[in-house]
Amino acid sequence: MLKKSKLLSAAVVATAAFMASPSHADTMGTPKISAMSILNGLENPWDMAFAPNGDMFFTEKCKGLSVKTGSGVVNVLGMKGSKGYGTTNGDLFCSGQAGMMGVAVDPNFKKNRRVILLLHQTNIMEVVVKLTSKSVMVTSL
User: What angle (nearest 5°) sits at the alpha carbon of residue 113, between those of residues 110 and 71?
Assistant: First the structure.
């Protein structure tokens, strides 16, 4: 009886070792993961969101909001002291954990062209900014 118990234990251990081996994991449909860089030289990238057409909106914590389109990168809204942005706002600041934070594309983006930002503005801890192709509307939380 003791011999059968040891044999059974050895079989269980061998099966567990086989199941955990990397060569066995490859046969279980484990996806192959790879990475590629689509933008270089970013300074403290924080968040990104994709429009239905594939444009990528992204924030850099102490710089601002930009969008990567099929034809290149457009800098949309810059923080105080940022260079190269279409619009900069002296009230937007970066310090500690404050800065240009979250970005989201409105679920109805195709119709309203709205992008929503979470950022920090002087004298207001957190601000939600709704950007459209025609205007910037600031709403404090």
Answer: 85
Q: Where are the domains of the chain?
A: 45-140
Residue 87: the pLDDT is 73
Sign of the CA dihedral with 93 first, then 94, 98, and 103 last: positive
Per-residue confidence at 49, pLDDT binned at 50, 70, 90?
Answer: very high
CA atoms within 13 A on the CB side of 105: 19
Helix (H) or strand (E) holding 19: helix 2-20
Let me know the angle formed at the C-alpha of 126 by 121 and 130, rounded to the nearest 5 degrees: 85
Q: Which tens digit of pLDDT belongs to each residue from 64-99?
A: 888 888 788 777 777 777 777 777 777 777 777 788
